[in-house]
Design a protein that fits this description.
By secondary structure, the chain is of the alpha+beta class. Helix content is 21%, strand content 31%. The protein is elongated and about 60 Å long.
Length: 208
């Protein structure tokens, strides 16, 4: 989830402090480090960052703030072998649905050593002919660059994301093509589509 300017200052200060000192700062040190006058404001920012999955706090413990591993990986502060990939929600493989950020993480360092990789769980059967089934986890590499026919996460009209093969049509439209013969493609003006990343792996769990 997006951070406010102040929230980014807080999490960056925490990451730098912990890297230098080996332990997390007190609220007083945070306030002094980023020029805040109120400890209540520090607490508010810490709570917001925890809710967004950037931080973890020990219950009733001093100096117990931990930075999420995936945020450290984004900053290049975590060895690839220790990296977890953020689990950002569920993605439609039927109709587009809103992508909802989650605080969970999945261990996929054996499959992706790139900190720009994230995981989504598929809902629906529109990609079943490409062997992407309901309940599968897909690994997505962030980025807007893609070739015709690649499977991508496409943000439609700024609010809904879907997993489809993307084709650029000659008339300026984008065709988001399902891999299911019973379903019709989604045709959208190119200006209304933002490619958020491309598929690099599919994972499936067969038993609990």
């Amino acid at each position: 989830m997006a951070l406010t300017r102040r929230q980014k200052e807080v999490v960056d200060f925490l990451a730098d402090f912990i890297e230098r000192k080996g332990y997390s700062p007190s609220y007083e040190e945070i306030a002094e480090g980023i020029d805040l006058n109120s400890l209540a404001t520090v607490h508010k920012h810490i709570a917001a960052l925890e809710a967004k999955g950037y931080l973890k706090r020990g219950f009733n413990q001093s100096r117990s703030v931990e930075i999420s591993e995936w945020y450290l990986a984004e900053r290049g502060r975590l060895p690839v072998g220790e990296m977890t990939i953020p689990f950002l929600g569920r993605i439609a493989a039927g109709r587009p649905i809103e992508q909802v950020a989650q605080g969970d993480a999945l261990q996929f360092s054996d499959f992706a050593g790139n900190a720009s990789t994230f995981a989504l769980q598929v809902r629906g059967e529109s990609m079943i002919d490409d062997h992407i089934c309901d309940g599968d986890f897909v690994l997505i590499e962030k980025g807007e660059s893609t070739r015709n026919g690649e499977i991508v996460v496409a943000l439609v009209a700024g609010v809904e994301s879907t997993l489809k093969r993307l084709y650029r049509e000659a008339d300026g439209m984008i065709r988001l093509q399902p891999a299911n013969a019973t379903m019709e493609p989604i045709l959208v003006p190119a200006a209304d589509v933002e490619v958020q990343g491309r598929l690099i792996a599919v994972m499936r769990k067969y038993r609990n």
